[in-house]
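Tokens for chain A. Residues wanted.
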């Protein structure tokens, strides 16, 4: 939670994914934390451990716009083959 608070002070409107000590120590069932109380624990397992093995403590998503551009979504769907 300390990591998330530090990042939120710098980037106020951002969304932050963090790992804790379990992820840093690559514990197989380590979760990814989001918004202080939400946990991604059922993401196929080991999400936090994978971040820890790569040396990633946090991922920050910084919004550039509040609007959603539907035209930007369509090429992604085509590329993914869905």
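Reply:
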């Amino acid at each position: 939670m300390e990591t998330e608070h530090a990042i939120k002070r710098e980037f106020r409107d951002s969304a932050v994914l963090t790992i804790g000590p379990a992820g840093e120590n690559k514990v197989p069932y380590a979760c990814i934390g989001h918004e202080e109380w939400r946990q991604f624990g059922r993401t196929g397992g080991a999400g936090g451990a994978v971040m820890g093995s790569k040396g990633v403590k946090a991922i920050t998503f910084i919004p550039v716009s509040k609007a959603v551009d539907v035209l930007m979504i369509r090429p992604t769907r085509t590329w993914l083959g869905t």
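DSSP finds four helices and four strands in the chain. The chain has a mean pLDDT of 79.
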